[in-house]
Amino acid sequence: MPNKPLDLIPLTSLKGVGPSLEKKFIRLGIHNLQDLLFHLPVRYEDRTKLNTISSVKLGDHAQICGEIVSSNILYGRRRSLQCLLQDSTGLIFIRFFHFNATQKESLIPGKKIFCYGEVRRGSKGFEIYHPEYKEIQNLDSILMESTLTPIYPTTEGIQQNRLRGLIKQGLEMLHESDGITDLIPIEISKRYELCNLTEAVKVLHNPPTDLELNMLDYGLNPGQKRLAFEELLAHRLCMRKSRIDVAQDSAAACKVNKELSSKFLKQLPFRLTNSQKSVLKDITEDLVKPTPMLRLLQGDVGSGKTVVAALASLQAISNGFQVALMAPTEILAEQHFQNFSQWYTPIELTVGWLSGKVKGPARQKILKDLKSGTCQLLIGTHALFQQEVNYRKLGLIIIDEQHRFGVHQRLYLRNKAAFANLHPHQLIMTATPIPRSLAMSAYADLDTSVIKELPPGRFPINTVIISNQKRREVIDRIRAACIGGNQVYWVCTLIEESETLECQAAEATAQNLVKQLPDIKIGLIHGRMRSEEKNKIMADFKKGTIQLLVATTVIEVGVDVPNASLMIVENAERLGLAQLHQLRGRIGRGNNKSHCILLYQAPLSRNSKLRLSVLRDSSDGFYIAEKDLELRGPGQVLGTKQAGLMAFKVADLQRDAQLLDDVKVSSEIIFQNHLEHIDPLIQRWLSHKEEYVNV
C-alpha cells in the first residue's frame, strides 16, 4: 500500500475510517491520503509544559491537571456542565455547554483529569470553556507532549484528537513510502531555495519545540512557504493553460469603423477621459485579432465603463456581428438597455431586451430577431443564454459585475456563443477594484485594463462615521436634504447572511421612518420583492416621486439617480470595505456635493474602527480593496466563497503576496522547459475543485 502514489490511497485504508467518516472528510476537501497530509494546521499550541492553577492568567492557553472537587449542571440562558478543578496551588472551573450523559457521569468528584484550554473570566473566577481533556489515574504519571500541538481546520463530527490520530497514521505510511513526489523542477527549487516537500509536510504536522511559534503562526516557516509556493504555482499554471487553450481558438477579426465611432462620440454630452481612451485602445487592438479577446475591465463606480463597452460593441456590430451584454440583476440590465437605446437609436442600431419577465409575443419577437440577426445588441440577465435563445452571429460577449456569475454560467455562455468554429470575444467588467495579489491569482488568464480617473464634474463623496446613538440627528439631516430637493438612500444590513431577516429589518426601518418623517415620500426595496415591484420602485425613485429609499444591499449594483446626494448605511461595521465603497458609489452622480453617513452600533471593535476609517479617509477604490483583502481575506473581497472562483488549502494571498512574482516567473520557466510538470501540479491541488478559470 505505501508504495502506491499517495493520491491513490483512499482514506478508508486508515484504521477507524469507514464510509460515514469518509463523507465528513470530503466536506473538508479531503479525498485521499495526500489530501490529508496537505491538510495543514491553522495554528499551534505549546503543550510541552504543565501549568499550576495559581500561575495561569486571563487569556492564557493553559495546560493543567488536577482533581474534580464538584460537578454541577447549571441552568440559565444556556444549560452547562460546570466542574471545579483543584491542584496543590488553587482552584479553577471548567465548563461544557455541549455535553452528553457519558461526560456527566464520568466527570465526578474525585476524578483526576489532564486538560488544556483558554482561560476566561467567569462569574465566580477563572474558567476554561470546553477544554480538551483526558482522565488520568495518577497525577505524577503525566506524559507531556514532545512537539508543538497542531490545531487543524475541522468540521462537525471530526474532533481534533481523532484528526491528529489519523494524520499520525498517514505520516507513518509516508515514512514507509518513497515520500511525496516533488513536482517542482530542481532549477526552480534551487533558484528560490525551496525546502524538501516531504520534510516540510512532516515538520508542519509535528513541529519540534525549538521552532519559533510566531514564525508558524504567521506562515513564515520554510515548510509553509514551500507548500504555499507550490499551491500558488498550480493555480497560476491552471490559469495560464486555460489562456493558452483560448489563444488557440479562432474568433471574428473586427476592424474599427471610424465613421460610426465618430457619429457615436459626437452625440455624447461629454468627452472621454484619457483613461477611457487608453483602455479603449487595448480593447480595439484585441478585437482586430483573429483570436478571442479575454479582457478584464476594472473601473471604480462611475468611472465610465459602460460607454467603453458601447464603443467596443460598435466595433463588433459594424463588422456584421451581434453583441450580448449580461448583467446580474434586472434593474442593472434595464439601466444598460436605457443607456444603449439612447446612444444607439440616433445612429440606427437595434437594441433588444430579454429577461425572465419578457414573455408571450414580445419574447417570441426578440428570439426571432436574434436568430435573423435583426437584433444587433441584446441586453439582459442570464436569460440571454437559455436553451431557446439562438444568435445568428454572436461575436462579442460583455459581462458586467462578473463576480456575481459562477464559473459554469460563463462556460455555458461561451460554448453557446460559438458558431462556424469561431469563439466570441469576451469583455468582463467590474466596479470592484481587485488588489494586485488577487488579480495575479484569480485572473491570471485575463488581460487587464483599468480606468483610473473619474469623469470631470464628479465630486468626491464626504464620508462620516456616526454612532447609532445620534440617530435623531441623522433623521433631521434626511429631512433637511429632502426639503432641499435632494434624494436619500437608507441602506439596511444584518450580520446574519439571511436575505429574509435583512428584508424584515428593512421593512421595520421603513415603518419607523414613515412615523418620524410623515411629510417625506418613502419607498422600500429589497431582494424578496417581485422584479416588477422592484423595477417600479426604482423607476419612481429615479423620477423623484420617492424622496427617501429604504433598501437592502440589493442596490449595491443599481441604477443611476443623479439627484441622490445622501446615503445612510446602517450597521456599516458589518459590511466589507469593498461593498461599502460600491454602495457609496450610488451617490455623487449629479452636480450636488454628496455625503455618506456610516451608522455604527457602539461599541466598535478596534478592527471595525480601522476598517471604517479607511473608507472615511480614502476614495481610492484600489487602496480600499487592498485594505479589505488585508483585513478580511480574498473569499470575502471577491465573493469567491459564494461564486466558487477559488479556494486555497495552504496559501494565503495577503500573507504570501511576496511569493507571487516568483510564482509568475516559475510558471513561465515550466511552460518553456518542463511541460510534463503542468498537469500533475494542477491535478495535485485542483483535482477535486471546479475549474477555477475565467472561461
Describe the structure.
This protein has 695 residues and is of the alpha/beta class. The protein has 25 helices and 21 strands. Helix 13 links the parallel strand 11 (351-354) and strand 12 (377-380). The longest helix has 26 residues, at 222-247.
Helical content (DSSP H or I, runs of 4+): 25-40%
The CATH topology of the largest domain, please?
Rossmann fold
CA gyration radius, whole angstroms: 30 Å
Helix run count: 25
Query: Which percent range describes the beta-strand content?
Result: 15-25%
**How would you name the CATH homologous superfamily of the largest domain?**
P-loop containing nucleotide triphosphate hydrolases
How many separate domains make up the residues?
Answer: 4
Runs with pLDDT <50, length 5+? 635-645, 690-695
Please describe the biggest sheet, giving its number of strands, its sense, and whether it closes into a barrel.
7 strands, parallel
What is the approximate shape?
globular
* Structure summary, number of beta strands: 21
Kindly, what is the distance between the CA atoms of the first and last residues, rounded to a whole number of angstroms? 39 Å
CATH-scheme architecture of the largest domain: 3-Layer(aba) Sandwich
SS class: alpha/beta
Q: Give the integer mean of the pLDDT values.
A: 84
Widest sheet, order of strands = 11-12-10-13-14-9-15
Assembly status: single chain
